[in-house]
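Possible regression after last week's pipeline update?

I re-ran a chain I had predicted before the update to compare outputs. Posting the input and the new output here so someone can diff against the archived version. Not blocking, just want to make sure nothing changed silently.
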Amino acid sequence: MLEYRSLVAGTIPADCDFEGCSYKDWSGPARLWALRDQRSQGVREKVMGKLKMGVMQMVEAARAEIEEVEASDAIKEAGDPDCLVIDIRDIRERKRDGYIPDSFHCPRGMIEFWVDPDSPYFKEIFDEKKRFLFHCAADWRSALTVQTVTRMGMENTAHIKGGLKGWREAGGPFTKDEG
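New output (post-update):
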């Protein structure tokens, strides 16, 4: 349960412990709702109970439900024309850090929409009878992604343990665009 403290615009809370905060930080509408994260030294005020499940618990639960493929095995599988590597990282990560050649880019935020044939955003590549190997940078997001698409009914999916980092460490092909 969140509790919010109402503030009048142009004021600073008396207990603001954020160095350098000033009235300019509080400009805007006549009333502001400020949240202060008790774990950091920010100007946000938040009073919240403990999360029921943290992100690492979610990742571990996903790993218990899905197929995980070692990076060295994924490198071999990726050579099969009936296998498609899906990169779910943000486009900025892909440009900055490079990518697996011939991988298909599907941002994590769009996966449910792109795999659902009833969605206006459906991508036909997900209707193909292929093996789909998902990866992200380290393997947390891809574990959650594979759990989601499997629950949606997608078959023959797995994620690459270690993500792109594991792939590169195992000697997998990798490319980075110039520029």
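Follow-up from reviewer: compared with the archived run. Confidence is low (pLDDT under 50) at residues 1-12, 14-45. Marking as no regression found.
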